[in-house]
Specification:
The protein is α/β, with parallel strands linked by helices. The protein has helices spanning 21-33, 47-58, 63-83, 98-104, 120-133, 176-190, 206-212, 219-235, 294-302; strands at 87-92, 112-117, 138-139, 142-143, 161-166, 195-201, 244-251, 256-263, 267-271, 274-278, 283-290, 307-313, 319-325. A hairpin with a 4-residue loop joins strand 7 and strand 8 (256-263). The longest helix has 21 residues, at 63-83. The termini are far apart. Bound molecules: N,N,N-trimethyl-histidine (AVJ). Residues 56, 64, 168-170, 172-173, 213, 220, 223, 287, 289 line the site of N,N,N-trimethyl-histidine.
Length: 327
């Protein structure tokens, strides 16, 4: 991978992905030996999974990305002002970095942009695209699993402060206690004067939520099932993928969408010498997507040191982008 040489300011930096085959195998085995069975959603995002996620974002039913993008476009200038001068902007789960552009366009003399993503191919592709379009910003891609500690790269110029941009309501994938721990460690990583600009999917009508995770075109189902295909591809697992189906619903007591793979038949998954029986109708949990209220999320973040500065939402209040600071 060669980054374009349009500016001497640009450097390339990327560590190897933390997600070796061994981690995938370990986590998969551990999850399938548990009862109820579970597979971590972070493994959705291989190359195919990342493509499928982008396709989900294009469906009519999945309102999140579209709505968040609208909010970003409408309020990017205000957000840029809030983030302040000479920021080093670190993006968690940068994916294809589409929404980032609105923000980058409105930052004031940014010192560096650090996209962090688990998918190496996706990361380098989008970092290259950004580097072409923003030759004046130092781009420092980091391939990492942001649920694990990683160190920030050093920019050539000294930033006045660090800010994390965490879009996409990805924080919703974490259980509430884990989400809070992650928010706390983001605070530590940012340090003094740290900032956090985070996208949050808000609680709303059940029908709207459930349609978003059961889209008409079946892309979300394909995305979920890709995890099993990936196990076959990368771990040589023996699975009858065609006997599994996508199952997603809103749990309003917990305020979250819950996503499962359900086997239609009794079958045995063979993985790394293990035989893992799956009963007909049994569910394998793959993902939670928590939905918050603005106040509820502000309280959660407040408990680990973040002070809410500003909130931007769409007219239907489907999605919020919230700006926090460390005082
Ligand atoms: C990428 C975490 C925001 O929870 O809505 C989309 C992932 N899963 N459809 C979400 C997802 C199923 C998505 N996030």
């Amino acid at each position: 991978m060669i980054l374009p040489n349009s500016s001497p300011k640009q450097t390339q930096q990327h560590t190897m992905p933390q997600h070796t085959r061994d981690h995938f195998l370990d986590d998969t085995l551990t999850g399938l030996l548990r009862s109820p069975k579970h597979l971590p959603c972070k493994y959705f995002y291989d190359q195919r999974g990342s493509q499928l996620f982008d396709a989900i974002c294009q469906t009519d039913d999945y309102y999140l990305t579209r709505t968040e993008t609208q909010v970003m476009q409408q309020y990017a200038a205000e957000m840029g002002n809030c983030l302040g001068e000479r920021v080093m902007l670190v993006e968690f789960g940068s994916g294809s970095s589409i929404k980032t552009r609105d923000l980058l366009d409105h930052l004031h003399d940014p010192v560096a942009y650090v996209p962090v993503d688990i998918s190496h191919a996706h990361l380098m592709e989008s970092a290259t695209d950004i580097a072409i379009d923003y030759p004046e910003i130092e781009i420092l891609p980091v391939c990492a699993d942001f649920t694990q500690p990683f160190s920030l790269p050093t920019a050539k110029r000294k930033p006045s402060h660090n800010a994390v941009y965490f879009p996409g309501s990805t924080i919703g994938n974490f259980q509430v206690d884990a989400a809070q721990r992650l928010l706390g460690s983001i605070g530590k990583m940012c340090g003094r004067q740290g900032g956090l600009l985070i996208g949050i999917d808000l609680q709303k009508d059940r029908d709207v939520l459930e349609r978003a995770y059961n889209d008409d075109e079946g892309v979300t189902a394909e995305f979920n099932l890709n995890l099993l295909h990936r196990m076959r591809r990368e771990l040589d697992a023996a699975i009858d993928v065609s006997a599994f189906e996508h199952h997603a619903f809103y749990n309003d007591r917990q305020g979250r969408i819950e996503i499962y793979l359900r086997s239609r038949v009794d079958q045995t998954i063979r993985l790394d010498g293990h035989q893992l029986p799956v009963r007909a109708g049994e569910l394998i949990h793959t993902e939670y997507s928590h939905k918050y209220t603005v106040d509820g999320f502000a309280e959660l973040a407040g408990e680990v040191g973040w002070t809410l500065r500003e909130v931007w939402t769409d007219p239907d209040s489907y999605f919020a982008v919230m700006h926090f600071v460390i005082l």
